Amino acid sequence: QVQLRESGGGVVQAGGSLRLSCAASGGASFGLYRMGWFRQAPGKEREFVGGIPWNAGSAHYDASVKGRFTISRDNAKNTVYLQMNNLKPEDTAVYYCAGSVSSGGAYDYWGQGTQVTISS
Q1: CB–CB of 82/50 below 8 Å?
Q2: In contact, 78 and 24? CB cutoff 8 Å
Q3: Where in 1-120 does DSSP place strands (E)?
Q4: Residue 46: which pLDDT band, with cuts at 50, 70 and 90?
Q5: What mean pLDDT is predicted for residues 93-111?
Q6: pLDDT for the residue numbered 26
């Protein structure tokens, strides 16, 4: 089993930055293949923000955040990060990290989410 725990959410003004962290724990974390970040705004469907292979390879992003958000990992700490710059009010959402043991399809593990609120 894998446990994912997000941290770093908060309230920031438009144009500001936040960095979210997602720490993976549990013996099965060694079997992770990829990690993803998702978000869900009030009254909206959960949407994909970006993802990164767990061990090696580059991140990829949804068009809505490309150029503003950066996903990175620290394998020594079993942690994935989401650096968010030039934040906009429409970025307000609960942000979730997710992990998968496969290269595609649905994610297997989810964190509890962390609230990000951008004030205008």
Answers
A1: yes
A2: yes
A3: 3-7, 10-13, 18-25, 34-40, 47-53, 60-61, 69-74, 79-84, 93-100, 109-110, 114-119
A4: very high
A5: 95
A6: 86
